[in-house]
Write a sequence for this structure.
C-alpha cells in the first residue's frame, strides 16, 4: 500500500514538472515579429494572420481549465490555434487595458440586446476582434461601426443609413441588429462557433464549407473557410480569455473617458449636439462619443420618427438650459433626408458611371468653406457618388475646384405592385435575399411568408414586399 502511494506521488510530481515545463515553453514568442502589429490603420475587420501549421504544443491545462471555467453556451475549446492568439493578445497590455475601461460603458448595452434575443453573453467579446469597440471603425471593404456591419447586411437587419445618420455606428441599434443576425445564424447552422464564423464570412460560405468537409465541427471545416475566418474564431476565444484573465497577464484596466451615468431623451425636433454640449458645459467630443451615429452632429428628430439623444446624467441646474435647446433652439440646416447608397468598396469597384447625355451633367465650383456634404445636399445626391464621379480619394475640397455632378434619371412612376416573387436557390439565406431587394428586411420576409424559422428550402417561392 505504501509503495503504491509513493509511486502515485512521484507520478504527480512528474506531471507538475511536465506541466510547468510546457507552460514555460508556451511563453516563448514563436511567431514572426511582423505579427506583433495586429491592428493596422482603421481596418479592424482583418484578423491577425498566424502560421497555418503551428508548432505542436502540449496541452496547457492551466489555459484549458481557465477557458472551461468561462464557457457557458458558447464552447471555448483550447488548442494550438487559440494559444497563438492568447500569446498575441496577452502582449497587447495597453490595448486590452483600454478595452476593459470601455467595457464598463459598452458591455451593459451589448448584454441587454443579446439577452433580449436570447443570445449568449460571450458574443459581446466579438466587438474587440471586430473594432476594438470603436463606433467609427471602418474596414478596408467598408464594414462600419462597433459590430462592423456591411452596408447591405446592416440595411437587411433594419439599420438606417442616410445623410444625417449611420445606425451602424449606434451602439444600441447595431447591437440589436447583431443579436438578430446571430439568432438567424444559429437557427440555420445549429452551432455557436459556426454562427460566429458566419458573422465574419457569411452563412453561405459556412454552409459550403460544411458540405465540403461533411461535418458541422468548426475545427473540421476550418480548412475550407476563407483564411481570415479560420483565424477569426480562435481570435475570439483568445479575446474572451484575456478579458477574463487580464490580471494573470499583468494587464491593468484604464479609465474610460465615457460618461458611465447617462440620461436618454427622445426628440421630435432637429437638435444641435454642439449646442447641447455647451448647455451641459461638457466637451463637444464627449457628447459625440455618446451619440456617434449622427453624421452632421445634428439629431434629426421628427413627429413621425423621434430620435434618441444620450447625455450625461442631468443635474438640477442643467434642466432649464437643456429644455431651451430641446424645445426652442432653431437649427439652420436642410431637413431633407437623402438615403445613403452603398459604401461597400467591392460594389463600388464594380460600379461604373452610366453614359448620360451632356445636358444632364452640371459642374459645381467649390467655394471657400464648402465640403462634400454641403455640395451633396445642394444637388440632392450622395457624397459617395460625388467621390466616384470625380475620382476623389479624400473628402477635402479646395476653393475653385470643379466637381462633375450627374443629374438623376427621372423615370415615370409605375402603378404600385405589392409583392415580387423570388425562388430560393442553393446557398441562399434570408439576409442574402433581403440585400437583393430595396426596402426588404429579414424581418419583413419572415413576416410576409409566415416563416417560423430562418431555414429555407431550395425551390421555395417567397413573397418580397417592395415597400
Amino acid at each position: 500500500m505504501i509503495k503504491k502511494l509513493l509511486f502515485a506521488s512521484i507520478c504527480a510530481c512528474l506531471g507538475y514538472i511536465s506541466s510547468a515545463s510546457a507552460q514555460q515553453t508556451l511563453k516563448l514568442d514563436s511567431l514572426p515579429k511582423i505579427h506583433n502589429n495586429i491592428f493596422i490603420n482603421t481596418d479592424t475587420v482583418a484578423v491577425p494572420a498566424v502560421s497555418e501549421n503551428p508548432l505542436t504544443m502540449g496541452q496547457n491545462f492551466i489555459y484549458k481549465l481557465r477557458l472551461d471555467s468561462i464557457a457557458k453556451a458558447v464552447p471555448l475549446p483550447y488548442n494550438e490555434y487559440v494559444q497563438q492568439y492568447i500569446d498575441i493578445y496577452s502582449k497587447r497590455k495597453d490595448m486590452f487595458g483600454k478595452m476593459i475601461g470601455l467595457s464598463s460603458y459598452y458591455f451593459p448595452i451589448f448584454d441587454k440586446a443579446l439577452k433580449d434575443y436570447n443570445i449568449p453573453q460571450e458574443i459581446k467579446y466579438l466587438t474587440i476582434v471586430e473594432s476594438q469597440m470603436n463606433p467609427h471603425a471602418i474596414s478596408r471593404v467598408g464594414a462600419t461601426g462597433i459590430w462592423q456591419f456591411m452596408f447591405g447586411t446592416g440595411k437587411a437587419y433594419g439599420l438606417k443609413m442616410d445623410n444625417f445618420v449611420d445606425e451602424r455606428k449606434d451602439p444600441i441599434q447595431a447591437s440589436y441588429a447583431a443579436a438578430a443576425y446571430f439568432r438567424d445564424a444559429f437557427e440555420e447552422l445549429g452551432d455557436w462557433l459556426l454562427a460566429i464564423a458566419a458573422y465574419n464570412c457569411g452563412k453561405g460560405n459556412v454552409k459550403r464549407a460544411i458540405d465540403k468537409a461533411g461535418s458541422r465541427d468548426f475545427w473540421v471545416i476550418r480548412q475550407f473557410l476563407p483564411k481570415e475566418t479560420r483565424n477569426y474564431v480562435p481570435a475570439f476565444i483568445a479575446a474572451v480569455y484575456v478579458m477574463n484573465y487580464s490580471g494573470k497577464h499583468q494587464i491593468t484596466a484604464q479609465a474610460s473617458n465615457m460618461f458611465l451615468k447617462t440620461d436618454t431623451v427622445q426628440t421630435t425636433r432637429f437638435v444641435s449636439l454642439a449646442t447641447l454640449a455647451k448647455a451641459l458645459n461638457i466637451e463637444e467630443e464627449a457628447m459625440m462619443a455618446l451619440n456617434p451615429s449622427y453624421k452632421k452632429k445634428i439629431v434629426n428628430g421628427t413627429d413621425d420618427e423621434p430620435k434618441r439623444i444620450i447625455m450625461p446624467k442631468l443635474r438640477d441646474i442643467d434642466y432649464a438650459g437643456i429644455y431651451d435647446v430641446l424645445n426652442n433652439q432653431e437649427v439652420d440646416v436642410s431637413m431633407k433626408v437623402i438615403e445613403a447608397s452603398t459604401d461597400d468598396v467591392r460594389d463600388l469597384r464594380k460600379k461604373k458611371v452610366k453614359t448620360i447625355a451632356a445636358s444632364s451633367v452640371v459642374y459645381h465650383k467649390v467655394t471657400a468653406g464648402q465640403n462634400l456634404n454641403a455640395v451633396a445636399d445642394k444637388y440632392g445626391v450622395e457624397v459617395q457618388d460625388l467621390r466616384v464621379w470625380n475620382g476623389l480619394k479624400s473628402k477635402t475640397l479646395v476653393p475653385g475646384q470643379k466637381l462633375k455632378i450627374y443629374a438623376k434619371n427621372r423615370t415615370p412612376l409605375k402603378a404600385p405592385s405589392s409583392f415580387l416573387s423570388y425562388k430560393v436557390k442553393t446557398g441562399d439565406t434570408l439576409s442574402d435575399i433581403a440585400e437583393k431587394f430595396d426596402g426588404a428586411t429579414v424581418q419583413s420576409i419572415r413576416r410576409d411568408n409566415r416563416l417560423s424559422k430562418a431555414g429555407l428550402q431550395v425551390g421555395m417561392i417567397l413573397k418580397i414586399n417592395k415597400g
Q: What stands out?
A: Strands lie at 262-267, 270-272, 298-300, 307-312, 361-365, 402-406, 419-423, 461-465. The radius of gyration is 26 Å. The chain has 19 helices and eight strands. The chain has a mean pLDDT of 81.
